[in-house]
Design goal:
The chain is mainly β and 127 residues long. The chain has one helix and eight strands, in the order αββββββββ.
C-alpha cells in the first residue's frame, strides 16, 4: 500500500515525513489537530493548541520503539502527555513506559514501550 501511495506522489514534490518510527512493527496510525476539551474534562490543558499522535504495536509481543516528530509540527521542548482514545489526559502521567526527549537535530523523540497490540495516544502541545 505504501509503495502505491509513494508511486502516485508527484515526482517534483518533496516527500516529507512528519513523524518517523524506528520499528516497522510499530505504526503511527494518525496525526491530527487535538480537539478542544471543555474545562470539566481537562481544566489544565483542554483549550491549548496541540496535535495528537496515535501509535499501535502491530505484533503479539511486547515492543519498544522511538518516535521522532519533525520540529515543523512540534518543537523538541514541547510538553507531551499521554491520553485516552478521547484525548483526555490519563490520570497517571509518570508511566515508566514513556519518555520524551530532544535529539541533536531538533526532533522531539518519544521512547515508548508497548504491550501486545497496544494502542497509545499522545497529545503534544504547541509551545
Amino acid at each position: 500500500m505504501r509503495s502505491h501511495i509513494h508511486d502516485a506522489y508527484p515526482k517534483g514534490a518533496n516527500w516529507i515525513r512528519w513523524v518517523l518510527c524506528d520499528k516497522p512493527t510499530v505504526e503511527v496510525t494518525s496525526i491530527k489537530t487535538a480537539e478542544k476539551l471543555p474545562p470539566v474534562l481537562d481544566a489544565r490543558h483542554g483549550q491549548r493548541d496541540a496535535i495528537v499522535i496515535r501509535v499501535v504495536n502491530d505484533i503479539d509481543g511486547a515492543n519498544k520503539a522511538t518516535i521522532h516528530v519533525d520540529p515543523r509540527i512540534a518543537l523538541a521542548r514541547s510538553t507531551v502527555v499521554e491520553t485516552d482514545l478521547l484525548e483526555r489526559p490519563l490520570p497517571r502521567q509518570l508511566d515508566p513506559r514513556f519518555a520524551a526527549s530532544s535529539t541533536r537535530d531538533g526532533y522531539l523523540a518519544l521512547q515508548l514501550e508497548f504491550k501486545p497490540h497496544e494502542i497509545r495516544t499522545f497529545k503534544i502541545f504547541k509551545e
